[in-house]
């Protein structure tokens, strides 16, 4: 059970909630803050003060005053009209993360919603009722309006939810679970959809997967180093201490740990003076990816605990400010940065695949084939890896440098952060496939060199993975092997 307070949520806690399905509770202080914020909104309504989003229209309609008797219709119309997302659905785990993040933001006590709203969100999370949310339609400013509107629909008994992975009518599931939907009151619809929770939720899941992939890339690279009888000297601690990047030093340390006791690695001058960059520079390149991951994690954890709707209510309602915390630029940059960093893990991995299969670059059988010529072996797996890294280069183009005006130019600069997060997710999936291909080729190379000479930790992995992917003794449908290794490398599969 994880207590949500609005200011202390971590990636590790989100992993436990969203992947391990741990339940949440709301802290007493946070609920007190929510209730005080709500009293401020009710005072604004009863005193007939004009405040954006409470008794005005939205966006370009912000100058349109709404009568008190129409305030509930205003919120309902907002949710229905903004629920115009299109395309494939966000993975269910992202939908769950979106709900948790939205709840945590409301618990900061700046949004003016009733306790009924946060209690219902908590109940839906704990009962694993996850909204079906289309991925496309957010500009990443004014909040993730379209995706979050689809989330909000479920709270009012509309829209769809996942049931055994399939979309079904939300009201049907709510009725079956005896969960009562709510009627949105003043400001509540706007508070639910004005925020960056779609891009941040996708970003959190991307980060969790990318972090695991970065760790996996190291032992896979270590296997490749053995298969090519690589030079261990390049990983000597003094080399990396001389540069000073702690992440580079840590990668070198882990590479040495994986390779400890190996009889397949070599020393400078034994077989060659130095290795190609894709082997020699593993700590430098992978370490730079880890630098990026650290940056991304920091930004995601800040945003996971941020008040990102508009307007925000301070000082018991004496100060209500329309600002722009819904603008997703920080997460847009972080996701674009993540895209580049993970694409580079795939780029260098594909180059190691080439060194494993190209007979001009090693002393292994051509394309690792058991019968070169008659059988193609791993030849076309390298083609697939090359195709994936090329696709990643297109996806890695920054989304955050784009902007397009909306709402009659009232909202004239947007972040495209959700697009960046979605593309980052695609790059993570592509890169896992590339590393799966490297893993298959490295296993085969180590098998040819003698797996009994492998480092103890790598030998243990080699034997386990041979149960997943048998040695290549004849050509076969290798897409099945790639898929099998990919599943091993996937930290969780509920989102698939």
Automatic annotation (TrEMBL):
The modification 2,3-didehydroalanine (Ser) is found at residue 142. Pathway: Amino-acid degradation; L-histidine degradation into L-glutamate; N-formimidoyl-L-glutamate from L-histidine: step 1/3. The keyword Cytoplasm applies. Transmembrane segments: none annotated. It is found in: Cytoplasm. Pfam families: Lyase_aromatic. This is Histidine ammonia-lyase. Keywords: Cytoplasm, Histidine metabolism, Lyase. Its EC number is 4.3.1.3. HAMAP family: His_ammonia_lyase. One of its GO terms (molecular function) is histidine ammonia-lyase activity. Signal peptide: none annotated. It comes from the Bacteria. Belongs to the PAL/histidase family. The keyword Cell wall biogenesis/degradation does not apply. It catalyses: L-histidine = trans-urocanate + NH4(+). NCBIfam families: hutH, PRK09367.1. PROSITE patterns: PAL_HISTIDASE. Contains an active site 4-methylidene-imidazol-5-one (MIO), which is formed autocatalytically by cyclization and dehydration of residues Ala-Ser-Gly. There is a cross-link at residues 141-143 (5-imidazolinone (Ala-Gly)). Gene3D superfamilies: Fumarase/aspartase (Central domain), Fumarase/aspartase (N-terminal domain). The lineage of its organism: Bacteria, Bacillati, Bacillota, Bacilli, Bacillales.
